[in-house]
Amino acid sequence: MTDSDTPLAGRVAYVTGAARGQGRSHCVRLARAGADIVAIDACGPVAEHNGYAHARPEHLAETTSLVEGEGRTILATEVDVRDLEGQQRVVAEAIEQFGRLDVVVANAGVLNWGRLWEISAQQWQEIIDTNLTGVWNTVKATVPAIIDAGNGGSIITISSAAGIKAVPGCGHYCASKFGIVGLTNSLAIELGEYGIRVNSVHPYGTDTPMGNDVSMYQMFADHQRFIHSFSPGALPTDSLAAPDLVSDIVVWLAGDGSSLVTAAQIPAEKGYLKV
User: What gap in Å lies between CA 57 and CA 42, rounded to an integer?
Assistant: First the structure.
């Protein structure tokens, strides 16, 4: 392989929610670009009200196998992003093993449905704790190591199209994803002096267990006006987008080709936000 084939050679990337879906895709694509991988996932129940099955240990094992198949080393650990001390332990182990940390992909997140005044306090808290506080935990655990490495770096938060254009039926999810934008932009300013860039990515309609959650259909059946807030976008849409297409953007943000890009919200939604 040439340097152009492996633009992230010698770098180490930390990915949350890595067992399957977008997280797995990001791990594999970053590894293909030359990075060694630090991967975490809860691999168990996260939110009681989710309409789709949770990740399991065998999913993370498959991610491990796929990364190793790309010829890279991976440190994979079952840790929930809500566990700050657990993430800090993983980062310490990663530094001991790899000696550096360059890229963070704060990907872990959950989604469930309900009108804001009808969801329970537990349902609200599970979404905020995982999607927003979980990202803050990831930032707190990883940023000191990236600064200490002294190589600059790239932090990529995975928000959502619903983090820019709020939609009905999942206001708690929207609140968490809008919160990620504020966190991202503030962090980009704070880390600029260290040459560390921070950007958010905003997917929509992705072919993952979350994206295939059929419980949303009941929400639309009960409240048919809500469907008008979910346009297919400007480009032709035959199906949900493959996670690998989002990973194209993640790999670009991780590398030097996006060196001028920070505090940006990168859409990955076929123009949905403009329709």
Answer: 9
CA distance 200 to 85: 24
Determine, yes or no, domain membership for 6. no
For the chain (275 residues), the mean pLDDT of every run of 10, in chain order, is 83 98 98 98 94 95 98 98 98 98 98 96 97 98 98 98 97 98 98 98 94 89 94 89 97 98 97 93
Q: Does 69 map to a domain?
A: yes
The DSSP output letter for 273 is G
Q: How many domains does the chain have?
A: 1
Positive or negative CA dihedral for 76, 80, 82, 84? negative
The residue range of the domain holding 209 is: 12-274
pLDDT in the model for residue 216: 86
**3 state SS of 56:** coil
Query: Tokens 């400007």 label which residue?
Result: 234
Residues with catalytic function: 173
Burial class (CB in 10 A: 0-12, 13-18, 19+), 62: middle
The reported pLDDT for the residue numbered 3 is: 67
DSSP assignment, residue 129?
I
* 74-78 and 103-106 beta bridge pairing: unpaired
Check if the beta carbon of residue 172 is closer than 8 Å to that of residue 125: no
